[in-house]
Amino acid sequence: MSLDLFNNYESEYTKLVSSARHRLDSLVPELAGAARTTALRETERELEDAHELAGQMEMELLALAGPERARAAPRMRQYKADIEHLKREARKAAQGLGSYESNRRALLGADYAESDGGLDGDNRTRLLSGNERLTRGSQRLQESHRIAVETEAVGANILNDLRGQREQIVNTRDALLHGESHIDRSQRTLRTMTRRYVPCVL
What we know:
With 202 residues, the protein is mainly α. 87% of the residues lie in helices and 0% in strands.
């Protein structure tokens, strides 16, 4: 039952995140004014719904059997990272920190439909320069996010390896203790037999 619920939540989560990503990548950059604001609000709502679904998925994850939980856990970590990444992108878009085209639309509004003659050389240069800085900053953030995700995955693998080694050590210790118990019983049996045998010989 928990696996079915997890799969249902996962399917709904995927639809919400896909819709939010499409809106941020394709729709919002083409909008300005009230239409852009509405699209961003819808994106934020979808991301909040996806965040709630991720919380439900985490609860169901705890109830899954060992192998199923092991397969689903990495996806769960990636889902949470995806939500945080999209929320940051939505905040940047709301603050006008998107691409050059979306920034220009937000700045010019209805005048965007006019020719580039509406901007003089200096203003155009400043906009291009500012867009380049924002693009470089966005690329650095994306690279940092990628490194963080990879580091988390490496850490999870190391923890799993350590957990396996600990189990091996515990099993070895238990086997040794069990063997020592047998040796003690054997020694006591031999001493008893020796005490019984010696008087008979004498």
